[in-house]
């Protein structure tokens, strides 16, 4: 039957596109947390959020040596959740995680590991099996397409269940539960760099510590720099937001990224309600970052959407909009041609995942059939519809 | 979309020749960066001679005037430029070895010299001679060692710069130390030194192109608090311009950095905004051409990366045609440039 | 009445601009040019230099004596054609600039007694906003010392033309109570010429004629990534080339004159041309298209689409006839 054949062919194709631990991998050898980009083969690492990985311009992960700035409007802390996933993924991958500016309690609030990202996907698809039966078989693939935004550039699906169980520990991206606490042997490897009150720039000491830590480590160790809520006045001294301090710090961070380009990544969150995007300072912070993503949470959680009946029981209503202003590598080259840029994205944070998917206004009530078909995601590629 | 040669035909007249002592301004925004255009400038200046070198070593003189480029980059690493130029078929490392190209690194150690180094420079102000004695031991390819330093100015971190240059072979690393005009002057001397080294192997007919990638960052990261304003930056640039044939400067023209400081604005602009706007606009007044990159107003499109508007700056002559073009950057870094309505 | 007024205005104001641009009778010791990226002052400065040179070439006309042109370059890097002396002022203190400007002028012995002098500052902005210049810098005395005679015996008439970029944001005032540099300049200047792009003037007029909001260009569009809006779409068509000068002149009598002119592009006339090339904006056919020959200036009857095309007599007959019928 054509359905079966097609499925086999597909999984082979994807595996060929991005084999983990391929021999040609230029990154530190046999590191499961590093994977060559399906786009151009550069090493990437996971942000801990599969749908964020898939948003990053076809690299299916954050390219090494790049910084990602997550900005958030309002007083919610969705960006903090992304940052915790990022830190937790680093811990699980036994990378060195450096956290700047927050006390060690922050590290105790990392979400608990519940398996690989694929395993979660499988569970979820089990749950949705009944629902799936209603969908014509030719839409079968579109469901997967929606779950992983980048479609064909999605993380490689596990080849077979048996193999997956065996490789539980070598997954590229893991799934975490925000209500649980991460317990992992390498969690003690996290370092916390506090901000010391100082006469000059409060960042000088931080940058020096990061630099020495990375420099003194063996070249095979991968580092992640986590900077929660940059310039937040409860953590940072008031003059930290002087451009000569914060911009020089970000420039220095960029220098660190370029000096150890194959073994560092960084993720920074920034509260936009304190530092709006319309200010020149924030624009410079964005210009100094390789990727810029803005979260715009909906004001009253999702009440209106939930009660409107627009969302089906299985589809959680989006909690906010997500905008990509700049993507690593893509924009450095001139950018703008990725199909993920300029689209409207919505995000949903649930206990077990932070999901980013194309935003579409809910269809009219009564149009349930079309809604279920279209709910999983964006427009399929033409090739997906061809027989 | 048909693929185009490394130099898109529509852009060739703007990229290939810059009149003497002209300034070309390239402005970019967050979503439409200028690196691809800088790479095309590099290609337009360097590829001809490198090709002829590759095929016939003797044909160099046949070309008449040779072009050399000094690239100063404040936001991007040598590795980035090298890798991206390679996609265009330019071997910057080899060109640097041939003294056709020089890179000045304004990223790695601009504000944070490595600790060992700071200790060394701070501790012995009179220990210059032992440091200098180590200099000749290091292999310096082709250059006349000590020629630049002695003729231009005794730069305090001279020995360090020379050391890192031999280490990396190409990139001279800039260091910002102190404050105000003195610090800017030191940077200028360092860059002028590299320019002098290039000039030392030049014929009279050769042209030296200086590309400064985002000096506006230097202004933003120092600012009036450190005694550096738009005027000082512009003067710094003019001083550098006087050493070379033509200059290309890239800077950011994002709305918050330009329009917050506009005279019509009713709110007080932050110094980082007003200084940036003053710097960018006054450079546009000096420039012969202003190449402005931006994204499409209508939002992202599948086959358009952005819009390039080429306008005459305040220092323009009538020879420059103004144009507005669309461009598309393929995933492999190739660029297609076309007019509106074409494809 | 209007035509008479216009011809009177034309005669007087064209004479005025001619005197100002050719520096005759030292009509204006200090002229302030206000330019922007949308219309830089470069063509006008070139015109000043051209006239200074044209008058010196034209030795027949003894009234137009030689003019010595000094350009103080705060932005310009190399000496433009036609300039006698070029003072690069980049990174120099105001006192040094004054000294150098005085030094480049040939001593009164060698030059003719009536030699005039034109001093042009290509952009005053850097001087105003420089951090190098100390707080003691006093703009009026700096400008005054530039045009002051070098020695009491020298009978040099100096004119100073200062360009100011309107769109470059200034710095916050150190003394919040002192006037801003721009208001100081406009107050000191005897004539202020604001430059506009002709095509923009036409676009604004077209919008005004239709009661639409006037369009804005370049920086004023506030569009991300746009520094310059001017695109010479009309280049080569000879249509809207040239620059518009908005002149505000203070006469010796104290009266003010406000007039709009057009300076055609330099390619339209020979560099040696002595005849006035500047015209009134109101005389331009693109700005004020010629009226239909039969329309009267004082014909206040609004034209409607229901116009029957009747002559005055026919209409009077019809209007006059109606009450008789009723």
From TrEMBL, chain A:
Entries under InterPro entries matching the protein: Elongator_complex_protein_4 (IPR008728), P-loop_NTPase (IPR027417)
Biased composition (Low complexity): 17-28
An example Gene Ontology biological process: tRNA wobble uridine modification
Record region (Disordered): 14-57, 358-387
CDD domains the record matches: Elp4
Pfam family, one: PAXNEB
GO cellular component: cytoplasm; elongator holoenzyme complex; transcription elongation factor complex
Superkingdom per UniProt: Eukaryota
Keywords: Cytoplasm, Nucleus, tRNA processing
Subcellular location: Cytoplasm; Nucleus
Pathways involved: tRNA modification; 5-methoxycarbonylmethyl-2-thiouridine-tRNA biosynthesis
Biased composition (Polar residues): 43-52
Similarity comment text for this entry: Belongs to the ELP4 family.
This protein's name: Elongator complex protein 4
From TrEMBL, chain B:
Entry's Gene Ontology BP terms: tRNA wobble uridine modification
Pathway(s) annotated for this protein in UniProt: tRNA modification; 5-methoxycarbonylmethyl-2-thiouridine-tRNA biosynthesis
Stored CDD domains: Elp6
InterPro entries: ELP6 (IPR018627), P-loop_NTPase (IPR027417)
GO cellular component: elongator holoenzyme complex
Domain of life, per lineage: Eukaryota
PANTHER family given in the database record: ELONGATOR COMPLEX PROTEIN 6
Family: Belongs to the ELP6 family.
Name of this protein: Elongator complex protein 6
Organism placement in taxonomy: Eukaryota, Fungi, Dikarya, Ascomycota, Pezizomycotina
UniProtKB/TrEMBL annotation, chain C:
Main location group: cytoplasm
GO cellular component: cytosol; elongator holoenzyme complex; nucleus
Entry keywords, A to Z: Cytoplasm, Nucleus, tRNA processing
Pfam families named among the record's database cross-references: Elong_Iki1 (PF10483)
Gene3D superfamilies cross-referenced by the UniProt entry: P-loop containing nucleotide triphosphate hydrolases (3.40.50.300)
Superkingdom as given in the UniProt entry: Eukaryota
Biological-process GO terms, alphabetical: tRNA wobble uridine modification
GO MF terms, alphabetically ordered: tRNA binding
Family (UniProt): Belongs to the ELP5 family.
Protein name as annotated: Elongator complex protein 5
